[in-house]
Amino acid sequence: MASRKPGALRSGRRGNLLLMRRNTNLSLFLLVFLLLIFGLNFFGYRYDWYNTFPWYDIPMHVFGGVWLALALVYIFDGRIFILGEGRKLASFSILLSAVLLIGIFWEIFEYSIDVFIFRKYSFSSVPVYILKNSLSDLINDILGACAVLLIALRSYAKNGPKLSQSPISEN
């Protein structure tokens, strides 16, 4: 049997950071937070809060960015943070890029609903405020994700193995 460094985890075990582990608390939190976002979004459309309160869209996208970042960290089980010494920026960039890509798809979805369901404007004519709003929404998605990622990186650096060590290595 190969000898292991003290504190190294056996192959196949998950990371040891609370935020990174697949556990029922995080699963439940993600589910409840998603339901909260859907509920707030439903009431926002139902009672026209998006038009009544122009700022209402901002926390919704920040919450969406927070949820996406937490979900991605959960899905990847924290492995994204084990890229090696000096790779925090790479970890950060990969997750932010994923959140940005999903945010872009969400903006296309919102635009499609406005065009095809609510018929606010035609498909070929995009009002300038829509482009500004979409850019603002993407920035808010990124801000929410940045908050989660900064906390996760700080917590991982403090509680998890050093970034230069893989928690599943046999060395």
Radius of gyration: 20 Å
The total strand number stands at: 0
Strand content: under 5%
Mean pLDDT reading: 77
Textual characterization of the structure:
This protein has 171 residues and is an all-alpha fold. Helix content is 63%, strand content 0%. The protein has five helices and no strands.
Short recap of the structure:
The protein is an all-alpha fold. It has helices spanning 24-46, 49-52, 57-75, 88-116, 128-159.
Keywords, please?
disordered C terminus; disordered N terminus; 5 helices; mainly alpha; 63% helix; 171 residues
Would you spell out the secondary-structure blueprint of this structure?
Layout: H1 24-46, H2 49-52, H3 57-75, H4 88-116, H5 128-159
Helix pairs in contact: 1-3, 3-4, 3-5, 4-5
